[in-house]
């Protein structure tokens, strides 16, 4: 990646009561990437994990000499028998991941312009009026080109896509603030304000195939037009707010806030949200005077409030989420007639998703070295969005988006920091953060309350956690090495009277198995060290408990020619010897345990990761005295991927946050 940045910052105290300023920045970044979003033969990460290392990059003759194309370039081995003595691969022909990386083009050029301006007016001693305006503009020019020589673009004679994406964000707020101290102990501050946010997204792209020059990705070099698209979206939020804070003698604190926000996403645009809070600094009480030698600060606090979420359809299609209150259509053309087809069914009754949060915490500092906080929270979310199926014959549509569900989340969080050394030239701090969460679904639509809503290995069910696995239970192998699963036994009335086993996957029963994707505990350890201009920081993350479904491992056990080569295949049942710890591997069996979902493929997701290490050095100030620079620093940074002792082929970092369902944003954001 190549990056260029420039920034200018101006602040001016024009009058004793008037201050203005502006900050303007520009950056340009050019990034060349690789295929990484699909599990295809052109994805170098998928190939590195899945392909056996037996396929050559270039083609060779029978004497071991490299072959060349007519233009003198080395010939690639594309799995079509280019190398003498080899035959055509059963699958993934015309593919060579090294050729794809060298010949295909994936370039993104970002141009970013940012601006921040403000004006401050102080008057009547205790009042201040501030107006802030921000403007952000980003142009993203993208080129995606598949060479006609080899790989994904060969069958099209080359395929090229050009896209231009403009994003504009503006925010303008005006705040009137008041602050005063009454007597020696009473401090009151308050703010009222107005805010307006505007977002614009402008998208354009086009694609051609059959390129004349195999190294030129421009669309003018292509012969056949495939498509051309453009669309725009707009989004606005306007809000009015007020807040007040009071404290007495730096010991007792109370606060209150209120917001009224309106969004262009809904016809019922406006929502009211509020919060109240209180705190008590116990360490400043007279009865704590004897603790000064070891207790520097101790404060308990609590708050309760509501907030809204209007971004409730983020996974449903980029353009549709901004006007979900109306039906939306796609224009069609069959070569002779213009038409349209439904693309999204809207609901004019959609409204804000609402959260109510209570939290209580304690902040502390001991021996002027150990400091941190502990916190407990409870959050209830109502009016959660559901895609509710309806009868097309009566409703005229297959579904309705509706605000129906409710969910609660509880958790504890903490951070503890220790200043081991805190001298002017020598500082060393270590920190530990951690959290534990619980989740429960409170209400679902009436028709889903009995059986819930199944999605993948999960089931949304009232009274259950959305992260508890709901899947089939592996029951071992029979004498022939066939996988078995548990199934319910029922009587003549259909009542469950017990469990038995079956080798027919379709007869098996799904169960809540008591295992969750949520970890028991997750956290991070970090340390910062500095000595006479040398700076070192290390950040780690870890997770204890929780389970993840190991899809990557199963890819290696599949029947696909170029991915089915996991070493655990040697552990599968051998009918000739009657031995093996894993079920028999049979690509022709629809009940193959390696292609069917069950708890056999759940693994513990505990891990430890060194996230990054940064080493820097700041030149002494005396060396910079005759320079136009006030300071100069050098820095090296290394990011390290996570690892875990229980992971077969999976990196389970925040696996529980990556679940894709209709009920989103349920974990507390800090």
Notes on the structure:
The chain is mainly beta and 670 residues long. It has helices at residues 44-50, 97-103, 392-395, 551-555; strands at residues 2-15, 18-32, 105-123, 127-146, 159-182, 186-211, 222-248, 252-263, 270-281, 295-309, 328-333, 338-344, 353-366, 370-389, 399-422, 426-443, 453-455, 458-460, 468-472, 474-477, 483-490, 496-502, 510-516, 521-531, 534-544, 547-549, 602-604, 607-618, 633-639. It has an 18-stranded antiparallel beta sheet. The radius of gyration is 31 Å and the shape is globular. The model is unreliable at 649-670 (pLDDT under 50).
Write the layout of secondary structure elements.
Blueprint: E1 2-15, E2 18-32, H1 44-50, H2 97-103, E3 105-123, E4 127-146, E5 159-182, E6 186-211, E7 222-248, E8 252-263, E9 270-281, E10 295-309, E11 328-333, E12 338-344, E13 353-366, E14 370-389, H3 392-395, E15 399-422, E16 426-443, E17 453-455, E18 458-460, E19 468-472, E20 474-477, E21 483-490, E22 496-502, E23 510-516, E24 521-531, E25 534-544, E26 547-549, H4 551-555, E27 602-604, E28 607-618, E29 633-639
Antiparallel strand pairs: 1-2, 2-3, 3-4, 4-5, 5-6, 6-7, 7-8, 8-9, 9-10, 10-13, 11-12, 13-14, 14-15, 15-16, 16-24, 17-18, 19-23, 20-21, 21-22, 24-25, 25-28, 26-27, 28-29
